[in-house]
Amino acid sequence: MPVKTVMAWSGGKDSACALWRLQRDERYEVTGLLTTLTEGFDRISMHGVRRELLGAQARALDLPVYEVWIPQGASNTAYEQRMGEAVRQMISDGVDAMAFGDLFLEDVRAYRERMLEPTGLEPLFPLWGAPTAALARRIIADGFRAVLACVDPRAVPAEFAGREYDEALLDEMPPEADPCAERGEFHTFVYDAPNFASPIAHTRGEVVEREGFVFADLLPA
After folding, report:
1. Of 48, 100, 52, nearest to 72 (Cα)?
2. Three-state secondary structure call for residue 145
């Protein structure tokens, strides 16, 4: 029997690529997505993407979403409490594993493994160790389409907010920035992918700066 798996879903390119790889592997059956949203904003945490667009992604993938709501400025304790509630629900639903789009940060992987160890869920890392320069271009070549929803202007130009994640952007990327943004240089919203039923119609709204990050507000079209 395939391993029933939930994908930790940020709505960005890495989680989308990891999901696609799992769905093509007969050892796994992806049964849902898990996404953290921030109370009061109705948006995906850190990425700032509207919940309506998360719903559109879920419909395009024909997968349900486990929504984990965290308070604004949540402490790590509060985050882990809310995440624990979601994990218990997943286990009750028969889930065996949770997958992540992490690439190379050892401390992040170790934290996820430590948090899941008491639960019995298997942590999966489908993209782990992939050279990010090659992976970035592979993602684009494979048909993933995304825009930069949030950027850290200390790492990449603020003008990247709202831009397409494409070859031209990669060519302009500062050499010290990771092209897959594994260190948080930017966050993306995927609006089309090989496993989407159809592209997600959206428009690009205003660009705002908040708490040191620059966000491009993406609107359902």
Report:
1. 48
2. strand
Q: What is the pLDDT of residue 46?
A: 84
Q: Within this chain, do residues 45 and 75 fall inside the same structural domain, yes or no?
A: yes
Summarised one tens digit per residue, pLDDT across range 47-81 is: 899 999 999 999 999 999 999 998 887 788 888 99
CA distance 11 to 9: 5
DSSP 8-state assignment for residue 185: S
State pTM to two decimals: 0.94
Q: What is the CATH number for 12?
A: 3.40.50.620
CA 80 to each of CA 35, 41, 101, 175, 205: distance values in angstroms, whole numbers, following the listed order? 13, 20, 19, 35, 33
Domain region containing 26: 3-124
- Both 50 and 111 in one domain: the answer is yes
Who contacts 185 (Cβ-Cβ below 8 Å, separation ≥6)? 151, 152, 155, 156, 177, 178
SS3 of residue 95 by DSSP: coil
What's residue 71's pLDDT? 85
User: What's residue 152's pLDDT?
Assistant: 98
Give the β-pairing of 28-38 and 65-70. parallel
Indicate whether 21 and 66 sit together in one domain: yes
Report the 10 Å Cβ neighbour count for 108: 14
- Whether 104 and 173 map to the same domain: the answer is no
Cα–Cα distances (Å) from 93 to 5, 40, 96, 105, 164, in that order, read 11, 28, 9, 30, 37
Domain count, the chain: 2
| Over residues 122-135, mean pLDDT | 98
Same domain, yes or no: 146 and 214: yes
